[in-house]
Design goal:
This protein is an all-alpha fold and 106 residues long. It has helices at residues 2-43, 46-78, 91-101.
Length: 106
């Protein structure tokens, strides 16, 4: 009876160790990314660095607004006869980009 209990305890310990290792790897990756961001900020002129990041942020925000509000709310009301001719929605891809820009992506 002691052998199965020891075996189950060993399995549980190793699984918990895997989760702990994954969390440590994630923390190390975040620390490395912070270091890369700091070096990038030091090496580039501040105005250029701010411009391209804010430009991309505005573009993704406008695309997200189109997919959520324009495509689903305003466009069908204003042009109901054109609704069937719209290309497929890209909300999944745009949301992934937006979450990545906001630092919420996985």
């Amino acid at each position: 009876m002691a052998l199965p209990i020891a075996f189950i305890g060993g399995v549980i310990t190793s699984v918990l160790g895997l989760f702990k290792g994954k969390a440590e790897d994630t923390a190390k990756a975040r620390e490395q990314q912070v270091g890369v961001n700091l070096e990038e900020i030091k090496g580039a002129p501040p105005s250029i660095l701010r411009l391209w990041r804010s430009f991309l942020g505005w573009i993704v925000a406008l695309c997200f607004a189109w997919e959520v509000m324009g495509r689903c709310i305003f466009f069908p009301i204003i042009f109901p006869e054109w609704n069937a001719s719209l290309p497929p929605s890209q909300l999944k891809e745009i949301s992934a980009l937006l979450f990545a820009l906001l630092g919420l992506g996985g």
